[in-house]
């Protein structure tokens, strides 16, 4: 794998983080954030036990771009994410209506192969959720489940993804040690590697930095930026400064009497500098929310 | 005066808590002391391996130990797979408010409170008579399995439910199938709970008397198959203490063996649990 220098977007805030970036390998292909819809949601509504949580969301997410979903707690951002890989199926009494397409795939169709869908759409959660076994097995498990059993391929893929998330140097000599013994930031990077190991097209991150210290948070943020152009990244974040730093596009959600709605979407620059809606402007400036 | 009342307020509750804890510990040491005092002198290797003589007043408990191990083996061999399967069904395949799940849980709660003598009569009617197994180790083991299942299932189900929702969601988000998730993530995480449930069940099974008198019987010969009648340690203690004049010394020695077995089982399960959990918390 070729190594190229980190993109200038990454700003240094400590020597350790700069050291981490110095050897962080980036895929050699040129990042491309295309103005082409990769994910299309039309009139998407979600209800739990008959109670509406999200109503009539119309949103297009561009291929290869980083799209941040922002808004106060309870406005349906996570519900929206969980619909994209149909994790909502696991929630008792959850009903989803409307249409949702990833490329040409009709996500909500009964015939959709969920295991393949979830292979294509990776997800990282708020808290690092490594499984209670070794680092190696954490990464091997999804690969084996999806049909890769060749030991050489497994070893090469694991090394590749661990390098992608900047964890290889730290764990290469202790791959058989328990993953739960890693620090919070390392665990979150391992979760990211575990999602990347399946080569997804879409990567969803649900507040991936909220349970981490500022240094680990910065490292994860750098990683997310490095994914731009290679994956379609959707990140839910309450950290507006973070959204401003890393996102190409922003979608702003708001809760109206307990029902989440998409208020406004656009490029990060437009949302943060000249929002069309008063509510967006108020939220961004800290007056509301 | 004020200082004195503050003293009472501060130390009063502490003293009550200490007294409560001591009251729990004292009977245990009293019981162990009594057993050791009266039973230790009769304990020897030949006692453990020889057959009882003179209705148990003399000789050892070899066949009784063997019958106990067989009855408990049958019980756990049947109860663990069924218990694990039911616990998985309740925690992974049904919602907590599902009608069938609620019915199963309610039945288990009622069964857990049923006196063992009732299980004995039920086992006698079903296994000994209806299924024609007679007074046998198999009948006893199956009856005990019915008895320990409720506590085993509820404990294992709780340990499955204690696994965080995030772990399940993460597994699903990686496209892992439900069987893979159960096999690779949920079962290993539930091992400590499974051991606790198993030990609670085993403890209840190994110390049971009433249910076995009606099912595995009284015979103190060395069993040759699971279809033979066999006397367990607890039944032997009961018989020596209640029906055999001069049987007390051997009853004490047998009780000491029984409590010793329970201690070994408990300590080894805690050791396994500690080893299991500490591996996953080792620094990487």
| Main structural class of chain A | alpha/beta
Main pleated-sheet profile of chain B: 2 strands, antiparallel
SS field, number of helical segments of chain B: 11
Biggest chain-to-chain interface with counts:
A-B, 36 and 25 residues
| Percent in strands of chain A | 15-25%
* Helix and strand element order of chain A: HEEEHEEHEHHHHEHEHEEHH
Profile the largest sheet of chain A.
6 strands, mixed
The SSE string of chain B, one letter per element, is: HHEEHHHHHHHHH
Total strands of chain A: the figure is 10
Give the uncertain stretches of chain B in residue-range form. Answer: none
Distance between the termini of chain B: 58 Å
Strand order of the largest sheet of chain A: 6-7-8-3-9-10
Taking all residues together, what is the mean pLDDT of chain A?
A: 85
Q: What's the name of the CATH homologous superfamily of the largest domain in chain B?
A: MetI-like
Query: Can you name the CATH architecture of the largest domain in chain B?
Result: Orthogonal Bundle
Helix % of chain A is 25-40%
Low-confidence stretches of chain A: 1-30
CATH-assigned fold name of the largest domain in chain B: MetI-like fold
How many beta-strand runs of chain B?
A: 2
Alpha-carbon Rg of chain B, integer? 23 Å
Any overview of this molecule?
The complex is a heterodimer of chains A (289) and B (284). Chain A has 289 residues and is α/β, with parallel strands linked by helices. In chain A, strands 6-7-8-3-9-10 form a six-stranded mixed β-sheet, sandwiched between helices. In chain A, strands 2-1-4-5 form a four-stranded antiparallel β-sheet, with helices on one face. The termini of chain A are far apart. In chain A, helix 7 runs parallel beside helix 8 (214-227). The radius of gyration of chain A is 19 Å and the shape is globular. In chain A, a hairpin with a 2-residue loop joins strand 9 and strand 10 (259-267). Residues 1-30 of chain A have low confidence and may be disordered. Chain A contains eleven helices and ten strands. By secondary structure, chain B is mainly α. Chain B has two domains: 2-42; 45-280, MetI-like (MetI-like fold, Orthogonal Bundle). Chain B has eleven helices and two strands. Chain B has helices spanning 2-39, 45-49, 62-93, 99-112, 116-130, 137-161, 165-173, 178-206, 210-213, 233-243, 248-280; strands at 52-53, 58-59. A two-stranded antiparallel ribbon of chain B has the order 1-2. In chain B, helix 1 packs across helix 11 (248-280) and helix 10 runs antiparallel to helix 11 (248-280). Chain B is globular, with a radius of gyration of 23 Å. The termini of chain B are far apart.
